[in-house]
Amino acid sequence: MTTTTTTTTTTTTTKPKRIDYTDNQHSILYAETGGCCPLCRAPILFRKPGVKKITKSYEIAHIFPLHPTPAQTKALTGRTPPIDINALENVIALCPTCHTRFDKNFQLDEMDQIRKLKDGFLADTKAKETAAQYVIQEEVFGILDKIAAMGSDAAGIPPAQFEISTVEKKLRTGMSPLQQSEIKLYATSYYIRIRDHIRLLEQSDQVSIRILQSQVTTYYLEMHRQHPHNKDAVFSYVAEWISSRTGKSLLAARVLTSFFVQNCEVFDAGA
Ligand SMILES: [Zn+2]
């Protein structure tokens, strides 16, 4: 017991060491970038013309510096280092040029920008993992096909049938103006026809449609829990889930998600 305590004390007082990341950790860090340096967009694994071998052109960079220089220490005043400086959450794959520039010409703004990019990568990975866990009713395949075949006829919708202010109220907070515009446009263009199609489906199997609605609601709530202050992200992740579970067009899934925003009480959550 005494030996263990002594070891722990020694470890915490020494400088953290750079660690060697395993092949699997490299795979995670490479995959989250989508294959490009997150700063300059240069490919980070590529094949030179006429050469069989793959060239690796990335390095694993610490976001919060591993061993801050005196200048970095000064710049980082008031910032708390992560508990585990070598954790995957504090490192990111960068091309050697951007890595060197970031380290040598350290700017707090750039560190914050890289932190934001990394947080986006982590959120995307988590959303993909969550999407794999949530199934969706088979009826949605047909609905998406129907939407994909619809032409837009916003002008043809009788105003009395559609209350756009409902959408506006729901989207009041936490959503960008551009995202609001997309949802309003889709809702006004497609709402009536999607609603009629779903009513038709309900006549043959009401339970299935109710299950579908509750599945979308559940997924929406899960995304809302992961991103309580970012309705743009919640909207996109719901649409991506519908698209990835069905293999159908992401555009049709965004139209259907807009329909649910207009139609479901749950999208008021957090308003
Ligand atoms: Zn780069």
Key traits:
single chain; 271 residues; mainly alpha; 2 domains; two-stranded antiparallel ribbon; 11 helices; 4 strands; 59% helix; elongated; binds zinc ion
SSE layout and pairing:
Blueprint lengths: L1 H12 L9 H11 L11 E3 L6 E3 L2 E4 L7 H6 L15 E4 L1 H9 L3 H26 L5 H11 L14 H7 L6 H28 L1 H21 L4 H16 L3 H14 L8
Antiparallel strand pairs: 1-2, 3-4
Helix pairs in contact: 5-9, 5-10, 6-8, 6-11, 8-9, 8-11, 9-10, 10-11
The chain binds zinc ion.
What does this structure look like?
The chain has helices spanning 2-13, 23-33, 70-75, 96-104, 108-133, 139-149, 164-170, 177-204, 206-226, 231-246, 250-263; strands at residues 45-47, 54-56, 59-62, 91-94. The protein folds into two domains: 23-131, no CATH class; 139-263, no CATH class. The relative contact order is 0.10. A hairpin with a 6-residue loop joins β1 and β2. α6 crosses α8. It contains eleven helices and four strands; from the N terminus they run ααβββαβαααααααα. The strands form two sheets. A two-stranded antiparallel ribbon has the order 1-2. The protein binds zinc ion (ZN). Zinc ion is lined by residues 37, 39-40, 42, 94-95, 97-98.
